[in-house]
Here is the input.
Amino acid sequence: MMSELVLAQGEPVEGPTPQTPPGRHGSRAAIIWRTLRTNARFWVGASLLAVLIVWAIAGPFLWPWRSVDQDTDWLLAPPMAGHWFGTDELGHDVYAQVMSGLGISLTVGFIGGLLATALAAVIGAFAGYIGGAGDAIITWMVNLLLVIPTFFILIICYPFFRGSSYWIIALFFGLTGWMITSQVIRAQTRALRERDYVRAARFMGFPPFTVVRRHIIPNVASLLIVDAALGIGGVILAETTLSIFGFGIQPPAVSLGGLIFDGSSSATTRPWLFMFPGFTLVAILFSLNLLGDALRDAIDPTSGANRG
Amino acid sequence: MILYIVRRVINYVILTVIASCGAYMLASATMNPAFPLEQRHPRPPQSTIDSLLDSWGVNPQVPLIERTATWFLGTLHGDFGIGVNNHPVADALFSRAGVSLQLLIVGSILGAVLGVILGVWGAVRQYRASDQFVTYGSYFLIAMPTYVLAYVLMLIAIFVNNVLGFHLLAFVGPYSADQPAGFFPQLWDRLTHIILPTLVLTLGAAASYSRYQRSAMLDVLGSDYIRTARAKGLKRGRALVRHGVRVALIPMSTYFAYSFGLLVTGATILEIVFSWHGMGELSVISIQKEDVNSIAGSTFFVAVLILCSSTLSEILNAALDPRVRR
Here is the structure.
């Protein structure tokens, strides 16, 4: 039902449209946009994410306290007029800390998530394209890495990155988060490999790198966009999990996970220390998941919402 | 079919062995097991430190390959080395495995069953109010990290206890410090302790399973054979269960195996939050103590769990999908 409706709306866009340049790519983007535009989840997710990003960037300029300031008049104050989210036992303003932590968590998430997606694209596409022994080795190594959950790999590697800045930690998440996606990309590439235009390029003597860059990656790009949106949330969550155990980003830089960790010991007696960073985190993950899912519905013709 | 499963299992066993040895080597390379000894006051003489490290089998002066080989040969007959507290790691693994398994088995089974039911229900009632409610609810739960959910439920439990006037829901450890006498009071005591952590694990797992199950079920609902089954005269519910759910479960069986690792991580967090002395707690403590043998042992346990869950999902896959059996 739904797909017929969407197609009926989408068909006229196949031709040249005023706002997009003529050509296959433009019209495809227009179709995706048409589908996205009608999806409530896309608008909820995108606007929530935009609000959070603006809050993290502009918020600190509009607030008298910084995350390192201490208000010794108010220790462990519950939420009130001067401190909207209350203060902790050293008089730190929780609202300022949440904004700073949000910024760091988003930075780590974007770096780690985008790096993981890029690695998955390159490794998956090459494994699928070259096939044979190289493919077998890569697939086998991916399976090996999947036997032990990433969380355990990360905590074992903790002594490596202990004390390093959050940029390094973000890179680390990128390096450990690409496995499952690379398998999906590999499967897609194996199907694309036998298409006429890919074979033509191969028999014309283009090296694998060129064929992958020109023909494979653009064809899995939509999948990569979705994966990046969901992967960013995944990295933010993973960083928070490490912080909960004290293995994450170390002070003075504080991520949302670190704040939650600090607040969790008194979560039942002073809930504001825990609930505000906690629900800010939930808001990020919620917006990224909605956005990723809406993108998947719009881009991937085989996903649930486009059928039935 | 048996041959197929056996081949897959052998593949998983090899992977598990190599991954565990890899984890041991990684842990040995990154950690300094002498650190807790060097921190003691007064600092023990170097010879004492060396002989202690030797007796635990973690002396960095011995080549890494040799240590790994010794460790691996030990695991074959149940010897996981000595932890930094001078107790055999195998004992700790043995006593903690039960605690973790209690949480994991109940949580994963309840989560999978609930997730499948919610997913099928949502797909059948696509875009109705109930489907929208389940959809947004599961998005919210997926966005809720395990520990946030755990503390939120803890606050709710405190509220419930206050309203009731007695401690119905407990959140410290798997059972009370002063255990009541008799079988049924003890069972009740354990139940009141297991409810909260299991609920956290179940809700989280069910939320993500239900999304995948819903989309798999929607794929199946549009297909011709469901219409054929209905045209043949099958009742709607029967057609949906026998021809719909069965087919929609096939991709799920693979997803169960993939997501089990996430579940183990979730259980690790819950053990810390609810003070259960399980395997996850051991791995976190041993990182802090730079205890190579303990972290290798607990990682080995996780790898074996994933081996078991992958095998189970292969069997489930073969049972559901006749094409695999050939």
